[in-house]
Structure formats: structure tokens, C-alpha cells
Specification:
Blueprint lengths: L15 E2 L11 E2 L2 E5 L3 E5 L8 E6 L3 E7 L4 E6 L5 E5 L3 E3 L6 E3 L3 E4 L11 E4 L3 E2 L1 E5 L2 E4 L4 E3 L3 E3 L7 H6 L11 E2 L2 E2 L1 H11 L8 H7 L2 E2 L14 E4 L2 E7 L2 E6 L4 E6 H10 L6 E4 L1
Parallel strand pairs: 1-2
Antiparallel strand pairs: 3-6, 3-9, 4-5, 6-7, 7-8, 10-13, 10-17, 11-12, 14-15, 15-16, 18-19, 20-25, 21-22, 21-25, 22-23, 23-24
Length: 283
């Protein structure tokens, strides 16, 4: 069998995606059906169990190609955005009625039943979520699901930001959550992915993937003066963003939060834990 990353390969011992025919031997090949996430966030897990660790999340409006649906209410498939494979709760998915038109540009935004802030919110959508706007009403946008979102909290889907470091800084104070990708909680590589995606830069999900795919390697001898804003620092299992010559911006389990940490102190602390810096990448 061809060696393919299982995190990005929709194949199991019992089935594989049709497009993998000829690359992977499987007893059954499935074409797959596209669905849209209709919950504020859908957990993606390695196994079909609520007790299984979170590997990543799909945000509202993102699409996923599903290859298997179980009677127990689980859907197995591949996220269309970054190609990640896993199990999602089937109740979090719905049909794709039309392409998304806008994305949430605020850190979080409430969805109301009508064009009034006095109505109880139906839910909260996180930065980067995708919606289908039907029409504008007063200061609100009516979505395909019938919810109303404050229009200033949305941006057309094709709008891209110019500074991914500033985008990452918007998550300061958000909780650290292994596998998370939302403003309610995210991990180190999720922070990098969401910040780069907002700027129109394709970014894989996990830190080892990012280390291989992003930018060019930079020789680093420990002199902080050689680092500049936007450089990515990689340790085994961790990634951080150089905000300036004195500050590291990252989501870290040490503080259980997205934080600004003095760069020199962070490098020393992480190395003292037995994990020396492995590489520096410059976009």
C-alpha cells in the first residue's frame, strides 16, 4: 500500500474514497456526499465515540465529504477545507443548499431569530464561520437558516486580511483546547491555521504538517535579533508566532490560553522542559 498520511487519507480497512482507487486497495470504494456543518462547531474525532479525543473542529458553514454514516449517529469523512479525516456527529451536518457568501469577521457573533438585539440569541458563531446571506434587513443580514446576524460582523467570503499576526492576536485570552479551532478554544496549530486562512494563505492543520509546508527554513543560532514579525517557531508538537523581536504569540497548554509571552523566556522555558526549538520558518 502506498504510504499516505492517514490524517489526510479517507481510507479504512473496509472502504476508501473512490478517488483513491489505484492508490489504495480496499474492499469497497465510496464516492462520498458533501454536507455542510450546521452547528456552531462540530467536533472531529479519531473514533466514533464522544469519549474519543478531539483531533480538530469544523466550524459552522464549512463543508465535509462524508463516506460513511452509522446507525449510531456518526459520520466519517474528510473536511473540504484542509483535508482532515475523522468522525463527526451526524446531527451537526446538513445538506448543502447553496455556496456560502460571507464569513464571520468578529471574534464571535450572536445569531438572532429576528433583526433585533433584544431577542434571545439562538447561538454564537465563531470567527471564520461561513454563512449564506439571503438579504439585508436594517442593520442585520438574514441567513439561509433563517437567523439574523449583525451585518458589520460579516465580510464577503473573498475578503482577505493582510496581517496574519494581527489576526492571531485577536484570539488572545481564548482558552487552549486540544484540537480546537474556534474563538471558544483552540490549540497552537489551530491558531496558526485560522490566522493564515483569514489572510488567504492555505495552511494544513497540524504543526508537523505546517513545518513541512509553510515558508522557507531560516537558520537560527539563538540570536533573537535575526527573528522578525511573522516567523514561525516549531518545536516537536508545538508552534508559535513571533509577534516582534521580544514577544511570542501562541496557544499553549502551559498557560491554558492564547498568550503573549516574552520571546527569550519562552524559548528558555520550553527548552528546559526537554523540548528544544527544532526549526524556524519564514513566510
Amino acid at each position: 500500500m502506498t504510504e499516505l498520511d492517514p490524517r489526510l487519507t479517507p481510507a479504512r480497512p473496509d472502504l476508501a474514497a473512490t478517488h483513491l482507487r489505484g492508490l489504495i486497495e480496499a474492499p469497497r470504494y465510496v464516492e462520498g456526499t458533501t454536507y455542510r456543518v450546521v452547528h456552531p462547531a462540530a467536533p472531529v474525532r479519531k473514533e466514533p465515540s464522544p469519549e474519543a479525543p478531539l483531533t480538530t473542529e469544523a466550524l459552522f458553514g464549512e463543508t465535509v465529504t462524508i463516506y460513511d454514516l452509522t446507525e449510531e449517529g456518526w459520520a466519517w469523512g474528510q473536511l473540504d477545507g484542509d483535508g482532515y479525516v475523522g468522525w463527526l456527529p451526524a446531527e451537526a451536518l446538513g445538506p448543502v443548499a447553496a455556496p456560502a457568501t460571507h464569513k464571520v469577521a468578529a471574534l464571535r457573533t450572536p445569531v438572532f431569530a429576528g433583526p433585533s438585539i433584544k431577542l434571545p440569541p439562538q447561538g454564537l458563531l465563531s470567527l471564520g464561520s461561513r454563512v449564506i446571506v439571503i438579504e439585508a434587513r436594517e442593520r442585520f443580514s438574514l441567513t439561509a437558516e433563517g437567523g439574523f446576524i449583525f451585518s458589520a460582523h460579516l465580510a464577503p467570503l473573498d475578503v482577505v486580511e493582510g496581517d496574519f499576526v494581527a489576526q492571531a492576536a485577536r484570539y488572545l485570552g481564548a482558552a487552549y483546547l486540544w484540537g480546537g479551532r474556534s474563538s471558544l478554544g483552540l490549540d497552537c496549530s489551530g491558531l496558526v491555521q485560522m490566522a493564515l486562512t483569514a489572510c488567504g494563505i492555505a495552511c494544513p492543520r497540524d504543526s508537523d504538517m505546517q513545518e513541512k509546508a509553510l515558508g522557507a527554513a531560516l537558520a537560527f543560532d539563538g540570536d533573537l535579533a535575526t527573528l522578525r514579525r511573522g516567523d514561525l517557531l516549531f518545536w516537536p508538537g508545538h508552534v508559535g508566532i513571533v509577534e516582534d523581536g521580544q514577544t511570542l504569540l501562541h496557544a499553549t497548554a502551559f498557560f491554558m490560553s492564547v498568550v503573549r509571552e516574552p520571546l527569550g523566556a519562552a524559548l528558555a522555558r520550553i527548552e528546559a522542559s526537554g523540548t528544544p526549538l527544532r526549526s524556524v520558518r519564514r513566510l
